[in-house]
Specification:
The chain has about 425 residues and is an alpha/beta fold. Helices cover about 45% and strands about 20% of the residues. It folds into 3 domains: about 30 residues; about 220 residues, 2-enoyl-CoA Hydratase, Chain A, domain 1 (Alpha-Beta Complex); about 100 residues, 2-enoyl-CoA Hydratase, Chain A, domain 1. The strands form 4 sheets. A 6-stranded parallel sheet has the order 7-6-5-4-1-8, with helices on both faces. Strands 9-12-13-14 form a 4-stranded parallel sheet, with helices on both faces.
Length: about 425
């Protein structure tokens, strides 16, 4: 009798312990989600100053579609920022061109990670449209990588820290070749391929790059560098060939500037102003033409500006014909999309949602994918075939890359638009 009593007590305590072990993490998770929400504030968008600069300060890579917010990462890091959507940058700059409240655009490129040449080509068109209104564009960073400098070169003024620099390294491809290693571990590869330059499996079959692969890679790398140099030169108002000439004579120019990299870049015209942070802030006040209560140039972040535009959007715009943009970014995989992966279920759901809109007049499939799963590609392709069966125009816009399955799904479109630097 006593034994049964203690067994019952033990079962009760065990049950309570299991309930607590489930509830405590849930309560903790709920608390930090609530704290994160409060820290971001929910008072609605702030009104913009009468005169300010639009601050474009991307964090990380520019993407076609922002991944879902990670609340844990956001809560644990005060510096957490969502990746910046490329089309958000382009549309904001274009809207700012006709907005009297925006007197300048400031490109803070310190934290952006490698915008591709194709992405910069698209942003540069919006920057040119903004500059045509007579408003200035200013770029600033302590250091410029090859990638983010190309975007900076489109500005009217390029600021660089006196201790900073620009690192040009060209374009290259490095691969690990594993034939000898695989032989040593007694792994035999069985490969079936067609075509002279089907090189994806070469690393398993060779210890070096084949002549055919080298020829193909050299061809597109040369084209990519030519496009990069031409865009940088045109942005800086320099003659064609200036960048290659600068690189070829760089040691002599560096020596003439007393081995000061920043001074070398200034003398060559690749940057306009050498300034530390305080000097940059003072110069921006003059370019923006206004000063806030903190003694700085008033700035409006990309996020603030988007919220303001959404709030001001008239009801009449809501009834206009709808063109749906469906992003396909990353490796094609079955299931849901994640960062760096384009999930076929997510993409087909996007398309289905677009088809349900009464105002839909066309669909633009924005492809930035090297390919991936044949199954995932076929699922998307079949959904696109349904779009065409309904008589809805389907246009593909290619980003930096649209290869393999990425091109296969694009083949269903009525029109395919690519950039000169798209690899496909």
């Amino acid at each position: 009798m006593i034994l049964r009593f203690f067994k019952a007590i033990w079962r009760l305590l065990s049950g309570v312990s299991r309930v607590i072990s489930v509830l405590v993490p849930l309560i903790f998770f709920g608390v930090f989600i609530a704290a994160f929400s409060l820290s971001r504030g929910d008072a609605g968008p702030e009104s913009l100053p009468d005169k300010a600069a639009l601050l474009i300060a991307p964090a990380g890579a520019l993407v076609e579609d922002a991944p879902a917010l990670d609340p844990l990462a956001a809560f644990l890091s005060q510096d957490y920022q969502q990746p910046t959507v490329l089309q958000d940058v382009i549309s904001a700059i274009r809207r700012a061109a006709e907005d009297d409240r925006i007197s300048a655009v400031v490109l803070d490129l310190e934290n952006v990670a490698g915008p591709t040449t194709s992405q910069t080509l698209e942003v540069s068109a919006a920057i040119a449209e903004f500059k045509s209104t007579g408003k200035p564009v200013i770029a600033k960073a302590d250091f410029y990588s090859q990638a983010n400098y190309l975007l900076a070169a489109q500005a009217d003024q390029v600021f660089l820290h006196p201790e900073g620099g620009l690192f040009l390294e060209g374009f290259s491809v490095y691969r690990a070749y594993l034939r000898t290693f695989l032989e040593r571990v007694r792994v035999t590869m069985h490969v079936f391929r067609a075509g002279d330059n089907k090189s994806a499996v070469e690393p398993y079959l060779r210890d070096d790059m084949s002549d055919g692969e080298r020829e193909v890679i050299t061809r597109w790398l040369t084209g990519l560098w030519s496009a990069y140099a031409a865009l940088a030169e045109s942005g800086r108002g320099m003659a064609p060939g200036s960048m290659d000439a600068f690189i070829a004579t760089f040691p002599e120019q560096l020596d003439a500037a007393g081995n000061d990299l920043a001074e070398t870049l200034l003398a060559a015209g690749w940057v306009d102003v050498l300034a530390d942070h305080a000097e940059m802030d003072a110069a921006l006040i003059k370019w923006v033409g206004a000063e806030d209560e903190d003694g700085l140039a008033p700035m409006v972040s990309l996020e603030q500006y988007q919220e303001d535009l959404a709030m001001r959007r008239s009801e009449s715009e809501q009834g206009l014909p709808l063109i749906a943009i469906v992003p396909v970014e990353g490796t094609l995989v079955p299931g849901e999309s994640e960062e760096g992966m384009a999930g076929s279920d997510t993409i087909t759901d996007y398309i289905e949602s677009a088809l349900e809109a009464e105002a839909l007049v066309a669909i633009v499939l924005r492809v930035n994918s090297p390919g991936g799963s044949v199954f995932a590609s076929d699922q998307i392709r079949r959904k696109l075939f349904e779009v065409r069966e309904r008589g809805i125009p389907l246009v593909v816009s290619m980003g930096s890359v649209a290869a393999s399955g990425g091109y296969w799904i694009a083949a269903e479109a009525d029109e395919i638009w690519a950039l000169p630097t798209t690899i496909t």
